[in-house]
């Protein structure tokens, strides 16, 4: 087995924490006798936003397991642990230190998932006088050039057209030239709530008790980041490729069947319901999206899962996930600064703690604190909704998202949050602002039953803050959203309110803005 302390290498392959795939393009042509790998835990990446302890533990534990797997395969790995005395604390400085010791002829890396990191590594390679080979990330089914071809000449980049193209190109859920079942998108069949009876008993996703390597990481995170948000008490994420496959199989066996119908539903104290909890291992490349898609399609073909569940699952991976990545690389770096609604408030402190009287936010943030996880409707129609209605600066919502979610990587977080959730991009991703009153949350969850606020009221002491801010949002953004598809009905309802009620809504909304942002975490 090669000695990782050998001081020379022909090519030095950089492997980042979200690139943990042994078949990565970065390893193409890898020569065990002449090449080496560099992996780095750096404080700069762990602290550029205050990160959830579970997110830190997941990344570091997965990286260390991947390092060990590479070494068992006979690959020389130079690994910088966070607490190494010589660790310089940032990618640029640590790469420079390692390059001086290893003396490679060139650097190789798979396309990073963060525009900022790409620029830092390019600059570092140039400063070190080394050629840098950045290779396309074939984890994804649609390369950046292919997405550029799709986008060329289009006035609108809505996801549905892209999704249909993906289905055709990869022959997934197709019946000849058309979609299986005769319909491309079965989202209308996937919006059921649990009703008054609430959800049935649903077992939690397959958990993975920490082994020795993971326990060492947990102890390090608790020691080095005691003030970071969140808790590690229930940490049981998959941290290896084998565990990721077990988690996927568990979803197919126990939850895929009803995933579609109830994927938008929410329930108090039930963070996972019928969801898969595989987004984190997908984004770390521990799980290949092709495997996830193929398994779901096989379940449909075997008759163990209905088409609406399988199509909804496939759409999230083959459609939405690939589309969001395409948007990120097409629009960056200017995309990060977009703020179409001129929202400028800071993020409220309770988004890190859950300490609020609003039960919907208390429930959603509370499970984030415990698990670093919330499913897509909690993200969009509770947490994202309230931030947009309040008027928080979109990039600050993205920074919070990067702080609190185990699966957050820049390429997936920024367009989802700034574009879809906050409408900060003015319609590149979403066709309209996803604005709703507390009535939507009441319909799709049991949160309002445990809350002192009335979702039907916009004024008065028991008025729901979501409902108050909804009407205020429509009023203050009327000029921006007038004429937009699907917004006319909402504005017409606003116009039915008399001037006195609208003035009281504005007064209450202004108080809510002051009260919610009086304390900030950052």
Structure description:
- It is a single chain.
- The chain has 522 residues and is mostly helical.
- The chain has three domains: 11-135, HUPs (Rossmann fold, 3-Layer(aba) Sandwich); 144-205 and 255-331, Serine Threonine Protein Phosphatase 5, Tetratricopeptide repeat; 350-516, DNA Cyclobutane Dipyrimidine Photolyase, subunit A, domain 3 (Orthogonal Bundle), CATH 1.10.579.10.
- The chain is built from 22 helices and seven strands.
- The strands form two sheets. The chain has a five-stranded parallel beta sheet, sandwiched between helices.
- Strand 4, helix 4 (115-127) and strand 5 (131-135) form a beta-alpha-beta unit.
- Helix 16 (394-404) crosses helix 17 (410-421).
For the record, what CATH class of the largest domain applies? Mainly Alpha
End-to-end C-alpha gap:
46 Å
Q: In terms of structural class, how would the helical and strand content be classed?
A: mainly alpha
CATH level-3 fold name of the largest domain: DNA Cyclobutane Dipyrimidine Photolyase, subunit A, domain 3
Q: Tell me the major beta sheet.
A: 5 strands, parallel
Radius of gyration: 24 Å
Shape: globular
Helix and strand element order: EEHHEHEHEHHEEHHHHHHHHHHHHHHHH
Number of strands: 7
Q: What portion of residues is helical?
A: 40-55%
How would you name the oligomeric state of the polypeptide chains in this document?
A: single chain
The largest beta-sheet arranges its strands as: 3-2-1-4-5
- Uncertain spans, ≥5 residues at pLDDT below 50? none
Please name the fourth-level CATH homologous superfamily of the largest domain: DNA Cyclobutane Dipyrimidine Photolyase, subunit A, domain 3
């Amino acid at each position: 087995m090669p000695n990782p302390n050998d001081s020379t290498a022909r090519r030095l392959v950089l492997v980042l924490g979200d690139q943990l795939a042994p078949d990565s393009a970065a390893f193409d042509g890898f020569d065990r006798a002449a090449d080496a790998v560099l992996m780095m835990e750096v404080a700069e990446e762990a602290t550029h936003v205050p990160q959830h302890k579970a997110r830190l533990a997941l990344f570091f534990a997965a990286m260390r397991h991947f390092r060990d797997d590479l070494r068992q395969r006979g690959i020389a790995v130079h690994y910088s642990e966070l607490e190494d005395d010589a660790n310089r604390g940032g990618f640029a400085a640590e790469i420079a230190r390692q390059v001086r010791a290893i003396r490679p002829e060139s650097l190789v890396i798979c396309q990073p998932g963060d525009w900022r990191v790409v620029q830092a590594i390019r600059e570092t390679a140039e400063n070190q006088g080394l050629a840098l080979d950045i290779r396309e990330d074939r984890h994804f089914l649609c390369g950046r050039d292919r997405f550029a071809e799709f986008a060329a000449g289009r006035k609108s980049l809505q996801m549905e057209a892209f999704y249909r193209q993906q289905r055709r190109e990869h022959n997934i859920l197709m019946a000849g030239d058309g979609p299986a079942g005769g319909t491309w998108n079965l989202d209308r069949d996937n919006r059921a709530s649990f009703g008054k009876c609430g959800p049935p008993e649903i077992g939690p996703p397959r958990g993975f008790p920490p082994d020795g390597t993971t326990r060492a990481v947990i102890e390090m995170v608790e020691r080095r980041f005691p003030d970071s948000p969140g808790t590690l008490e229930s940490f049981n994420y998959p941290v290896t490729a084998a565990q990721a496959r077990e988690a996927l199989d568990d979803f197919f066996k126990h939850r895929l069947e009803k995933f579609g119908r109830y994927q938008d539903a929410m329930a108090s104290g039930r963070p996972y319901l019928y969801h898969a909890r595989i987004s984190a291992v997908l984004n770390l490349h521990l799980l290949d999206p092709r495997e996830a898609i193929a398994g779901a399609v096989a379940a449909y073909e075997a008759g163990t899962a209905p088409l609406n569940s399988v199509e909804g699952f496939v759409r999230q991976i083959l459609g939405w996930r690939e589309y969001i990545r395409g948007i990120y690389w097409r629009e960056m770096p200017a995309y990060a600064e977009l703020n179409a609604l001129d929202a400028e408030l800071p993020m409220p402190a309770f988004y890190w703690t859950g300490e609020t009287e609003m039960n919907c936010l208390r429930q959603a943030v509370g499970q984030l604190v415990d698990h670093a996880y919330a499913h897509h409707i909690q993200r969009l129609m509770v947490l994202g909704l309230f931030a947009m209605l309040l008027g928080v600066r979109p990039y600050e919502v993205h920074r919070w998202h990067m702080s609190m979610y185990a699966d957050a990587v820049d390429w997936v977080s920024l367009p989802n949050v700034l574009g879809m959730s906050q409408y900060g991009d003015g319609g590149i991703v979403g066709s309209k602002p996803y604005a709703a009153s507390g009535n939507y949350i009441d319909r799709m969850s049991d949160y309002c039953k445990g809350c002192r606020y009335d979702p039907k009221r916009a004024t008065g002491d028991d008025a729901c803050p979501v409902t108050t801010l909804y009407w205020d949002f429509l009023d203050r953004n009327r000029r921006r959203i007038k004429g937009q598809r699907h917004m006319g009905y909402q504005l017409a309802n606003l116009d039915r309110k008399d001037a006195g009620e609208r003035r009281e809504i504005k007064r209450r909304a202004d108080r809510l803005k002051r009260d919610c942002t009086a304390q900030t975490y950052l």
